[in-house]
Design brief:
The complex is a heterodimer of chains A (74) and B (226). With 74 residues, chain A is mostly helical. Chain A contains four helices and no strands. Chain A has helices spanning 9-13, 18-35, 43-60, 62-66. The chains are: A mainly alpha (74), B mainly alpha (226). Chain A: It is a single-pass membrane protein. Chain A: GO terms for molecular function: proton-transporting ATP synthase activity, rotational mechanism.
């Protein structure tokens, strides 16, 4: 039985040595701060905070919500 | 379903610790303070809105009443932001708790009334009898006015609680109805979904209006008493 891993092409181009992985995170970090500057106070920043709040509340009420799921077995 | 309907109104605790403190404090994160003259967009927008509201609300008061500006502006900001945040999915709205609304309404009302009684005793007592009442009606009217005075903080608190709670319940119910109807008939589900959208728009308006009404009434009680 073969398992075929379908990864996008760019991820295969990266080298999987530890330094290479760190470079990926570094690039992501710089890109993030290039596109989303916290000093300007834009709507994306606010919506991130609100999304985190929604997620936090969902985690908090997960137990009660679990009973509402239509079926346990998918 | 009955138990699930009211499950979103119980006070959130985590491992026995009150989480509600954090939730009550959360809206203050959304109003950043800034000491600069020219701020970023976000802070400028908030300051502009605050100036608009304070001018509109505090212009009717004399200088003595205007000392309450800070209190009333923080009140309207707190209630407005808490109500609006409660419209996000799964969130807990502190203003649905009667205890909290009573805790806001009673001290503010009592402060206004006691200020009136201390500084302008005659005028405050005169409020108990409207002008031009026929003499036989006077005793009954004084009793009625006293009752209406003492009911003011209760009405303030219960109005806010009931409006916000009812809105949240309606959204839960109609949302559940939409989900249940989807497997039965698609057109009815679509109609119910449109009702849900309209209701959500209404709830946004109600959230802000209730904050305004609360603050306006407190400011009116203040105006009567200063």
């Amino acid at each position: 039985m073969d398992v075929k891993l379908e990864l996008p092409i760019w991820i295969l181009m990266q080298d999987f040595i530890p330094k290479g992985i760190a470079v990926v995170f570094q690039k992501g970090y710089y890109q993030y701060y290039k596109y989303l500057s916290m000093k300007k106070g834009n709507v994306a920043g606010l919506s991130m905070v609100l999304a985190a709040y929604v997620l936090f509340n969902r985690c908090r009420s997960y137990k009660e919500l679990k009973q509402e799921q239509p079926s346990e077995y998918h | 379903m009955n138990e699930n309907l009211f499950a979103s109104f119980i006070t959130p605790m985590i491992l026995g610790l009150p989480l509600v403190t954090l939730i009550v404090l959360f809206p203050s994160l959304l109003f950043p303070t800034s000491n600069r003259l020219v701020n970023n967009r976000f802070v400028t927008l908030q300051q502009w809105m605050l100036q608009l509201v304070s001018k509109q609300m505090m212009s009717i008061h004399n200088p003595k009443g205007q000392t309450w500006t800070l209190m009333l502006m923080s009140l309207i900001l707190f209630i407005g932001s808490t109500n609006l945040l409660g419209l996000l999915p799964h969130s807990f709205t502190p203003t649905t708790q009667l205890s909290m609304n009573l805790g806001m309404a009673i001290p503010l009302w009592a402060g206004a009334v006691i200020t009136g009684f201390r500084n302008k005793t005659k005028t405050s007592l005169a409020h108990f009898l409207p002008q031009g009442t026929p003499t036989p009606l006077i005793p009954m009217l004084v009793i009625i006015e006293t009752i209406s005075l003492f009911i003011q903080p209760m009405a303030l608190a219960v109005r806010l609680t009931a409006n916000i709670t009812a809105g949240h319940l309606l959204i839960h119910l109609i949302g559940g109805a939409t989900l249940a109807l989807m497997s039965i008939s698609a057109t009815t589900a679509l109609i119910t979904f449109i009702i849900l959208i309209l209701l959500t728009i209404l709830e946004f308006a109600v959230a802000m209006i209730q904050a305004y009404v609360f603050t306006l009434l407190v400011s009116l009680y203040l105006h009567d008493n200063t």
